[in-house]
Design a protein that fits this description.
single chain; mainly alpha
């Protein structure tokens, strides 16, 4: 991490969102911490609010879209202020991708863990077209490769549910 950038002026809201309230500052593997934090928040909110499956799906989709929409400008700002193209401490992209992977899955630990493992697999390996999205400029590239990894994890996770209900 560029320590000079951290000592300089920071846009507080962008750093709070970009690092997902500090999860991205944890070592090692800040992306995994961001993904786990998202999965825990999703699981906790589902069990606290007890939504119907339809409302759970709609709420999760809205959360994923909101994380993406807010994450693009936040990631752009943090990258610029860090002096790095894709800083490792920006984990809002993993948060958004993880939430996409959780859409419409049963609200239990085995399924949440499957979504987490699938997302991390596709986020780390970046199969085509995921890797290509990294080339987009600024926060768009930072965010959309993880959104794509989340959507692939979503599709594979739901295919697994069809095969192994």
């Amino acid at each position: 991490m560029n320590l000079r950038a951290l000592e300089g002026k920071k846009t507080l809201w962008a750093w709070a969102v970009g690092t997902f309230f500090g999860a991205g500052l944890m070592k090692p593997g800040p992306g995994t911490y961001g993904s786990v934090a998202a999965a825990i928040l999703w699981f906790g909110s589902i069990h606290l609010l007890h939504p119907s499956p339809l409302h759970q799906t709609i709420g999760t989709l809205i959360a994923a879209l909101a994380a993406t929409a807010i994450g693009i400008p936040a990631a752009t700002i943090v990258a610029r202020e860090s002096g790095r193209e894709d800083p490792g401490h920006v984990v809002i992209d993993e948060v958004a991708g993880q939430i996409f992977a959780l859409i419409a899955i049963p609200a239990d630990w085995p399924h949440a863990l499957l979504a987490l493992l699938l997302f991390r697999l596709f986020d780390i390996t970046k199969p085509p077209p995921v890797r290509n999205l990294e080339r987009l400029h600024g926060g768009t590239g930072i965010m959309l490769d993880d959104v794509a990894a989340g959507l692939i994890a979503l599709a594979i996770g739901h295919a697994a549910l069809l095969i192994y209900p």
